[in-house]
Amino acid sequence: MIYRPLYVDKIMAYTDTPFVKILTGVRRCGKSTILKMIMEKLQKERNIPEDQIVSYRFDSMEYEDMTAKEMYAELKGRLYQGKKTYFFLDEMQEIKGWEKVVNSLASDFDVDLYVTGSNSRMMSSEISTYLTGRYVAFHIYTLSFSEYLTFKSQYTSLEDHKSELANYIRLGGFPATHLQAYSQDEVYTIVRDIYNSTIFSDIVKRNQIRKIDQLERVVKYTFNNVGNTFSAKSISDYLKAERRALDNETVYNYLEKLEKAYLLHRCSRYDLQGKEILKTQEKFYLADTSLRYSVLGYNPDTVAAALENVVYLELCRRGYKVHIGKIGDAEIDFVAERLNDKIYVQVTQRIASEKTEKREYDRLLEIRDNYPKYVLRTDEFASGNYEGIKTMHVADFLLSEDF
User: Fold this and answer.
1) Where in the chain is the domain with CATH 3.40.50.300?
2) Residue 87 near residue 54, CB atoms below 8 Å
3) Residue 197 — left, alpha, or beta (φ > 0 → left; ψ -120 to 50 → alpha)?
4) Inter-axis angle of helices 98-108 and 68-76, to 10 degrees?
């Protein structure tokens, strides 16, 4: 196992506290492995005996028809008498009513609970009802650029980090695709399997969707329009023009289900002058750039959108709440806020003319505050600041510890 301190250290800070630790994220992003890392650290660093650590994976066929009551009886029977029991419960969303089980265990016994799930029903109102104030949530993402370099360095020599960024964008960050030297086709085969499992198990089967072709058309539209603002009506109108009529409400429901399965992340627009979140023309970003390429094929013309996607995910990993900024008729790619911090980010693949350069920087200069502002690019440029705006290569930004 390749250690992922970004998550393990944060989660371990809550060990032996009364909080239930809930890990969520897209399938195969590494949640189960992170649980194993925590179990290993408990044994090696905190000297917790193996008998006190109990692990279950509830997406196994063994538990397919298990009820919440049966789950409670099973787990109660594994309690370690006289000492704390550490429960690691993987893919809990498969058992209806799991929230009640976890609440009962946490209330009645000396336990430390770690729970994972691949659907945002894990964070539904039912959890708030049963576990109010008693849980901490951790969103697990696919590998960051830094983690990708660490994984890849285990089996091959690395190129310079700017060249590696191109590989990272093309191949994505699902951990399973970077455990050995896979070809691009092999990577996309693995990612397509993750995609298909998510679509058919977490969306189609769970929601009893019959018109799968409609869902897939919505998926392909969103994958094709990463980095573009659009609405459910935009998709509906597009499909109507393709003679595939689909009403706005159905499109909206499909988008919501894709979000709940963590395939998509919705990024709303924020009016920097009116200080309000706008409810129209949002953007959607993918859980991983490889999803687009594995489903639609690799196209170098989509790299600019993929760069945006990568920066968006990195900001989210670092705990920022991210919006698209609107200032007059102009758009700022990202306005990212975290506690008392805020940064503004423009992402561009290349700046080919003085006119384009002026446009990119002028948007940021219109913002009259002293928070850090960045223009990120991948072409050649003179280093330094432009009237207080920092220019960085995207790769350097992703590896920086300064934001």
Assistant:
1) 5-139
2) yes
3) alpha
4) 30
Task: Quote the tokens at residue 29.
Answer: 């992003």
pLDDT tens, the chain, 403 aa long: 899 999 999 999 999 999 999 999 999 999 999 999 999 999 999 999 999 999 999 989 999 999 999 999 999 999 999 999 999 999 988 888 898 999 999 999 999 999 998 877 666 555 767 787 899 999 999 999 999 999 999 999 999 999 999 999 999 999 999 999 999 999 999 999 999 999 998 899 888 898 899 999 999 999 999 989 998 889 998 888 877 778 889 999 999 999 999 999 999 999 998 889 988 889 999 999 999 999 999 998 999 999 999 999 999 999 999 999 999 888 999 999 999 899 999 999 988 788 888 888 999 999 989 999 999 999 988 777 888 899 999 999 999 999 8
Q: Is there a contact between 33 and 129 (Cβ–Cβ < 8 Å)?
A: no
- The total of other beta-carbon atoms located within 10 Å of residue 125's CB is 8
**Residue among 174, 178, 250, 179 at smallest CA distance from 209:** 250
Spatial separation of the C-alpha atoms in residues 116 and 77, rounded to whole Å: 21
- DSSP helix/strand/coil, 315: helix
Domain boundaries 5-139, corresponding CATH code: 3.40.50.300
Q: Are 325 and 314 in contact (CB under 8 A)?
A: no
Question: What are 110's two structure tokens?
Answer: 């000396």
The residue type found at 76 is K
Instruction: Say how far residue 313 (Cα) sits from the centre of its chain.
Output: 7
The model's pTM:
0.95
Residue given tokens 């945006």 in the structure block: 308
Helix or strand or coil: residue 176?
Answer: helix
- Which sign, positive or negative, has the C-alpha torsion 89, 92, 98, 102? positive
Residues 288 and 281: their CA atoms lie apart, in Å, by 22
How many CB atoms are located within 10 Å of the residue 104 CB? 15
HSE-CB for 4 with a 13 A CA cutoff: 25
SS3 28: coil
